[in-house]
Amino acid sequence: MSETVVSIRGLVKKYKEITALDGLSLEIKEGEVFGLLGPNGSGKTTTISCLLSLLEYNSGEIEIFGKPMTPVSYDIKRDIGIIMQNVAVFEELTVFENIDYFCGLYIKDKKTREKYVEEAIEFVGLSDFKKFYPKKLSGGLLRRLNIACGIAHKPKLIILDEPTVAVDPQSRNKILEGIEELNRAGATVIYTSHYMEEVEQICTRIAIMDKGKKIAEGTTAELKKMIKNTETISIEVRELSEDIMKQMSELPHVYKAEQKESKLYIYCSGGKHNLIRVLNVLQEHDISFGRVYSELPSLNDVFLEITGKALRDKEE
């Protein structure tokens, strides 16, 4: 059975009248890629700041690697790598010098450090850019440099806060592949992102937060079982009469039927052969139609139903 790497129990953080974290509890096991999701203002960044002892909190307990986490827990911090949303590198240092500097905060032996730095450079695909200064790098390459600075000392726990924001598809794929490789090599990962397809691709378990509380937790498959929607059918078709729409909405397992522009949307909860029944109604009334899609719920559907919000709602 995997050991617990991160344990958060009953965490409360208040800013005057605002409660940023309201009794939050989380457990992250060794070897997980743990997704932390929530709309803006849900408390994700506050959670990470408390986890790293960068913020004082009102009550609760935080343990990392089985030990209480405090501002002076340097033995714990040595085994943590942090890659935050805002790129944090030195403009006056080259790619190599930046990674060497951050690695040197943890690894004092020069030969070991040089080996680690070279491995980090190769890992993020910056071998051709070692002597470049950050201002000469594209946004995607700059993100890769930021990651290399955070992982060069080979941490056991890696925290990535939206590492793929505003990067090109090639760099995004390189970053995601890198995270999976780090995980296979033994690192436990905490990952936050606004890109649901990324979370669905790499995370083994996910917690959804809202208003400082954990409101759902589980694997992608487990989370999808928590919502009403199990299938969404969309069909390109001319506007249908009220009687036909009523007939659609009364089909078995259909809980909602609506038309938007030139598309019919049928939302189902459970059941089999839902698409066949919908097409039978159209055939009965001799109604021609275009493209037909039947989609299972995505992680984004789960998020919207559970929180009632789009992930990029501007609430902060």
Q: At the first level of CATH, what is the class of the largest domain?
A: Alpha Beta
Write down how many β-strands occur, each being a DSSP E stretch of 2 or more residues. 14
Q: How helix-rich are the residues, as a percent range?
A: 25-40%
How many alpha or pi helices? 11
Order of helices and strands: EEEHEEHEHHHEHEHEEHEHEEHEH
CATH architecture level-2 label of the largest domain: 3-Layer(aba) Sandwich
Major sheet characteristics: 6 strands, mixed
Relative strand content: 25-35%
Instruction: Kindly report how far apart the N and C termini lie.
Output: 39 Å
Total domains: 2
How would you describe the oligomerization state of the chains in this entry?
single chain
Biggest sheet strand order reads: 6-7-8-3-9-10
- What is the structural class? alpha/beta
Q: Output the radius of gyration.
A: 24 Å
What are the segments in which pLDDT stays under 50 over at least 5 consecutive residues? 312-316
Globally, the shape reads elongated
In round numbers, the mean pLDDT is 92
For this structure, what is the CATH homologous superfamily of the largest domain? Answer: P-loop containing nucleotide triphosphate hydrolases
The CATH topology annotation of the largest domain reads as Rossmann fold
